[in-house]
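request received
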Amino acid sequence: MPEKRTGGRSAAVLAQIRTAVEDLVRERGAERVTIPMVAERAGVNPTSIYRRWGDLPTMLNDIATYRLDPTRPLPDTGELRADLVAWAGEIVEHYAKPVNAALLRGGAASAGETESDCLRNRRAEAVVLASRSGAPFAADDIVDLVVAPIIYRVIFLPWTLTDPGLAERCVDRLLATGRAA
Amino acid sequence: MPEKRTGGRSAAVLAQIRTAVEDLVRERGAERVTIPMVAERAGVNPTSIYRRWGDLPTMLNDIATYRLDPTRPLPDTGELRADLVAWAGEIVEHYAKPVNAALLRGGAASAGETESDCLRNRRAEAVVLASRSGAPFAADDIVDLVVAPIIYRVIFLPWTLTDPGLAERCVDRLLATGRAA
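response:
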């Protein structure tokens, strides 16, 4: 797990590193970015990066979803289907940006040992949504039926993310499964 | 797209390379394998590897599912649910082996430009399954509801692949969604 530090200077350094990573991935593609390159662009010592993240895929995995702010408010219109569609639509929209998709793909190589912050945050949101009144499904169903198909497309079939009905279709399947159970 | 060659010598070389990659990934982890290392272990010139695949993630992406043989017979018992559960179970079992999961994760970094052979083969199988009599769903539904949740777990939550009910749960959701539609 990356070391978490707090405080003004650390936060500013972290923001510089994130910006450098995002710019370099956008310019060169995730597979051609290196830690010394990020350090130079961010104006930090490569050692600081190695100390915090250990290696490049771990850093990409951690930074991949910085911009999908975990503190943003969840949609809450009082209508469950509308909230789920809006939430799924935010995830689709986030990853329809090539830089965010490239970061997720670059980070996937180092996934699988611990749950990434990114996906833990989405799961925490799924827990909240599944606890709303009248929800006929569990948080795990949201992960399998909404998050997984979207992330699968981000990694393997990104050209299908422009399908305008994707978020609705995932949510309608979730609701249909819940009603049938 | 990697160049596809046929013939006895090429096939033998390809088998040596695949074995070398699988052994090295098992020994060192996908993120510590390099093309020169694979070439040395396989007894081939690194140039042959660069010419065929271009870079390491592309090679991993292509080799990741070699062992889930696309010519194996699909389950065909006459009972749709049983066939789907057996098919989904094969995919889970394949990727529950750490080396296969590591190859998939290592290859994910280079995914997203063209559909990998691996996933194209699974989609072709989904098309056959969706065309069987009485199937109340399309091939895309199989990909979203069965393949995507399994592959998502392989990459991000591999410790959940040992859940013995996973294949059945995915298939039952697929059937429930089809009935509700």
